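Appendix C reproduces, verbatim, an entry submitted by the partner laboratory led by Prof. M.T., so that reviewers can inspect both the input and the predicted structure.
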Amino acid sequence: MSGNKQKSVSGASKRFKRTGSGGYKRKSSHMRHILTKKSTKRKRQLRGASLVHESDVVLIKRMLPNQR
């Protein structure tokens, strides 16, 4: 007999991706709308992805049980 599989939080699976070294990468916020008042430098720096802070990794692992 096999146990039941837990479902991932679908919002978290869209926002976070697993890296090869075991961390999680995320996209920067504040890039959806009201872009005219933000400087070009600020928008350029928000463009790339960054890693999730180590204090939040435990919460994300709990939300994404099938990606371990």
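DSSP finds three helices and three strands in the chain. Additional entries are available on request from the coordinating office.
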